[in-house]
Amino acid sequence: MKKATLLLLCGTLLCACEKPPIWDIFSKDSSLEGTQVDVKDFKTDVSKLFVLNEGGMGSNNASLDFIRFSNGNYVTGVFKKMNPDIAAGLGDVGNDIVVIGNEVWIVVNNSGLVEVISANDETEIAAIAVPTPRNIAFDANYAYVTSWAGAYVTYDSNYMVSDSKNPKGQVYRIDLKTKKVEGSVEVGYQPEGIAYYGGKLYVANSGGISCSLPPDYSYENTLSIIDASSFKVVGNVEIAPNLHKVYSDGQGVIYVTSMGDYYMNHTGLFYIYAANPSEVHKAGKNQQKPGDLQVSISCLNGDTVYCAGTRDEFDWSTPHTYYVWSFSIVDQSTDRGKIVLYPRELTGTPYGLAVIDHTNEVGGHYVFVGDAGDYFNPGTVTCYELDFGNADKLWSVTAGVCPGHFAAW
Amino acid sequence: MKRSATPTSVATRPLPKGPLPKLSVTSFPLLSPRGHLPFRVLPRVAQLAGVALLFISSHTVGAQQIDTLTASAVYSVKERPVVKPTEEVQLQDAVVAPMQVADVLRRFTGVQVKDYGGVGGLKTVNVRSLGSEHIGIFLDGIQIDNAQNMQVDLGRFSTGGIGIVSLYNGQKTSRLQTAKEYACGASVHLDSERPLLHKKFAGRLRFRGGSFGTVNPSVLWDQLLGPVTLRMSAEFLTSNGRYKFPYFDTTLVRENGDIRSLRLETQLFGSTAGGSWQLRLYGYGSERGFPGPVIRRAMGFPFSAERQADQNIFAQGGWDQEWTERYSTAVRFKYANDYMHYDSHPEKNPMAMPYDVHYRQQSGYLSLAQSYVLSDPWSVDLSTDVQRNALDSDVGQFVMPRRTVFTGALATRAVWNRFRVAAHFVYMGAWDSYGNPNAGGWSREDGYRDAWMPSVSLYFAPWEWLELDGFVKRSYRLPSFNDLYYTQIGNSNLSPESAFQLGADLRINGRKSFWSWELRLSPYYNKVSDKIVAIPTSSQFRWTMLNIGIVDVTGLDVKANMNFSEGAWTADLVLRYSLQQALDHSTPGSQTWGNQIPYIPLHSGSIDFVVNWQRWTLAWDTSVAGERWSRSANTDDYRIAPWNISDLNLSYRFDRPDITISLSCNNIFDQPYQVVQGYPMPGRSLMAGVEYNF
Q1: Is 0.90 exceeded by the ipTM?
Q2: Which residues of B, range 206-245, sit inside 8 Å of A by Cβ?
Q3: In chain A, how many domains are there?
Q4: Is 0.90 topped by the overall pTM?
């Protein structure tokens, strides 16, 4: 017992003696401290993992946390701490977070803002107004933000635009340098995820509001393809109802998740090849049972999409357990995919997912799961070894309300 | 107050001025004789009875008592309830009273009114942390209900035409109650004043107006039509809802919080040999905006453009009849048709979720209550209610739920002078079916839910100056249509939510020369279990409702009244204090386990002070709420600051013509405060009123 304590102490001391990376020393946020967690074996080129807590709609309690990998500190409420002048805080409903260069772009849905902060010290660089922004993607010159609202630029002083009660969604384009909105293009109803690959933007239309509105009461099922240079829609691909996330593996495969319609169509992971977008494939299409490979939450790590899904999707009477699986394309010419089913099972209410590679030779992964708890009170971020289901969770910390989105810097 | 303990002494009391009502001897509020007493009489009555001004029920019981003695002179069990209301307030001089019923209730011990701010803001009532779904709101004994969400917006109920507002924390134990009055956790009773005409007609004109562009005229007309009395009333209310509020580090004005509403009512009152009846037609229409929560929002986008229009129509009535000296019945009915249109106006607000939906809720209700005196002072009551609810909407995949509820209550009371006991058993069964059973793509089976609800109440008055009562009770509330069938939320397998209650009251009263006083101490314990809680499922967009919540509530209510009366002076002081510990015991090991549930302050209280001198009345009220949290996670982020708010009202009454003028200032010290997090309340406001009775 004493020996173990001594060993532990030594370990801590050794860690403490390790020189922190240069960006930590000069960062204004280096004084922020939080809960100590164990991140020793994480991939060393990651400095921070940001956690965006959505908050509850109307509660103005979106918040930003990060894990500092140099010393294993989990710090909550970072945006507020580093921007005390912004009395309103981060805002209402944080919906997406992406790191681009040394900037963090945070989409604050119900505040109508895209907040740009420094990845180094989380101080505000710009706050850009976009109506009901949802998700964000980048090319070399622009940020592209999906939006549920009508054409913001055409509203007059009385906000009058059209007679439509259910305006089609838009993709707004923001200049990376000037941080100004430069036009928008109309897509389908209630667009969600967006990804950029090879001069094209791929936008998942959900119809999440249309489904409860007359006359059609139906979800969207299309992926809109926008040519980035002309900023025009060049195609629509029918995939599945209620599309959600879009990922590009960087090699020409575009992944799209569907949330299904909650009673007839299950969730699932679909993909197209950028070279032949009209042909839609389903991950696990050769599985025996229909409905296998469900997607409740997902994330991209490298060229692989990681998902957690539940087999009892249409049973609304009990809490569920979630299995974790991943999918990647091994050979595009023969459409050969690789499915891995991990032994790790998740319980509770997993809400956000991030996977980071392990430094050891085996090539394992760590998985971060944001658990929303009751969606009302602060949730947790838990770290597991993804590849070893029997091992206990490594650690769990209290985050903000609905920790749903991750971004590594 | 000793009127219940020693009714004989009450009978010898001098009666208030005015003619005695020719009424049956029921104590059921629908038909109880509450007339237009000149308000100056009240302090005298109160003084004589040794009670405070606000406990005006003394004079009504006094009147009933005399009537009983002259009419039938038997069966004390018919007259006396077993327990008293926890709180009771008369609103006769309503130009002085607050405009909305919610503002009357918020002072009561153990009551939390959730207020979203402004004249048009939602106001729901919660008693002793049971949850507003457990609180029955009764208008003349007939429940005002809402099968859609089981919450009644008390901001919509004007004090105009309401005679008495009373609250029962435990169990109301009067004769000829409807079964529903037995079947709720706690109850608020709004009883109309019954017109008492000693001329062909009488009327009242009232006008109020003031801050936030509030204009509130109303008219009331009473007319004798042979043996029947007709009452007609109309009330209009408009307010722009614009008030300053702190917006983080700056100040903004609330927008889109305006309201217009119109209420039209016709009532008929009549009597039969040994009975009486009442009929009411009610129409209410309103159009209002919702200003939305205070959140960070990009410049140029409005906070909200949401509008809601409502049309509420109902017809209700009752007939109380004494068939023999032992056997009486009461029949009550109601038909209600509630229409609601909600529009988020995305064309005016690019931040809006595009919604434009309509709901229509209909409800039919029939109740028969029977009471039989077995052997004085022992009686037995059987009440049977049946109700049908239907909710239609153009929301996508809506199941159009229909519900038939049967409620049966078997109750018994034994009422001696100093010792009284009541017990009841309620059976409630609800059968749900669907206008669109395959909505959402899956077929729902018709569902039946039922529950048994027992209760026992005791009353003991060892001396005239000391009264003790207590009750134990279990009640259930049915899952609402929203709990069960909301399109993206909902779980049609829910069971009713249960509330176990244990409570006691100790009342001490006394008087000496010009002073009289009463002290009430009410400890209680409540346990809400199988609480219906929304939790998310495999999709963040698809929530479900589960019976998983447990709340343990331990509390103490204290109320002290002091009354002074000498010559032209009367003064009343009411002090209230509530200690309420309401702990979340839902999930052991969770971070919220053992924490105070949202919006319940551990400490709260109020001070009411009213002084009368000749024709002047000055009223001062201060309400205090301690810190509380908007989440069960009792952290700084969700702490809501304590507040104390003071209101002042000054009025003067002319004798001839009978005109009262009043001036009031609410939130005198202009305190910024929030009852619900994100919904700021108005600052200082002024209101002036004039009332003419003829």
Answers
A1: no
A2: none
A3: 1
A4: no
